[in-house]
Structures are given as C-alpha cells and as structure tokens.
Design brief:
The protein is 34% helix and 31% strand. The protein has 142 residues and is an alpha+beta fold. It has one domain (4-140). The strands form 2 sheets. Strands 1-5-6-7 form a 4-stranded antiparallel β-sheet. The protein has a 3-stranded antiparallel β-sheet with strand order 2-4-3, with helices on one face. Strand 3 and strand 4 (56-61) form a beta hairpin. The longest helix is centred in the C-terminal third of the chain and has 17 residues, at 124-140. It is globular, with a radius of gyration of 18 Å.
Length: 142
C-alpha cells in the first residue's frame, strides 16, 4: 500500500512574543472546537527558540500529512485576531512512498494577512497539465 505525503516548513514573524504565545493558545482552541476544520491536527506550530523570547512561529507538517487548507485557515484566523499585515506563504510538496502515476507534485501560495485573501496560488500538477495541453494544441495548429 502506498502512503501519500504533503510536507512543508515555514516561519511566520509576529510583532511580539505575546502574539506568538497567543497563536499557540488559538491553535489549541481550534483543535478542541469541533466546528472548525478537522485538519488542524495535521500540522504543528511552535515558537522558534531564541536567546531571549521569540516572536517567530515555526509551522510544519505533522507526520507528512499536512492539510494546507487548514494551515491557511489557522493563519487567516490568527492574522484577523491580532491584526497582522503584509504577506505570507510557503511552498509545499506532495509525494508518495511508491512510484505511482500522478502522485507527485506540490504547490505554493501567497496570503494577504490583512485581508485574508489568497493573492496567488500555484499547483505544479495543474501547471504541468495546462502547459502540456497548450503545447500539444500549438503543435496541432497550423
């Protein structure tokens, strides 16, 4: 049986160590709330260690099984509650433990923290399929 993996690792710089601490509290609350996205357990969040206190979150997949939509939902909610601005995002990979057709790829996105809007998103699988169709179409056209 093949195992499928979605993996990522990213940091999110907040304004203070209090905001970083609140982020961990918020994630725990979202994980306990049955009405929120069930994928909240698919990723881990911790505060990066520093000599003193840190305001940098480290977000990463848990056991290679990240729900990217849940990560985005968490960061949107956090940004809304603490008033983040700027842009944030990351690239992720999708792989498989055995060679399988159409099981490898990945993607990336950019999230506007102030508005919660996804500014752009790319899936390597979608890009590849679209590009191949366009190339094949051009080759057939006179």
């Amino acid at each position: 049986m093949a195992c499928h993996f979605t993996q990522f690792s990213s940091s999110l710089v907040l304004n203070s160590e209090a905001e970083a601490s609140y982020a961990l509290t918020l994630l725990d609350a979202l994980r306990d709330d049955e009405t929120t996205c069930t994928g909240m357990h698919s990723f881990d969040v911790s505060v990066l260690e520093a000599e003193d206190a840190s305001n940098v979150l480290w977000l990463r997949d848990a056991y290679g099984d990240a729900d990217i939509e849940a990560v985005i939902a968490f960061v949107r909610r956090l940004a809304e509650e603490i008033g983040c601005t700027g842009y944030w995002g990351f690239a992720y990979s999708e792989s498989c433990s055995k060679p399988r057709l159409n099981e490898f790829g990945g993607g990336a996105f950019i999230l506007n923290l102030e508005t919660g809007r996804l500014e752009d998103r790319v899936s390597t699988v979608d890009w590849f399929e679209t590009t191949m169709r366009e190339i094949n179409f051009r080759q057939r056209s006179p």
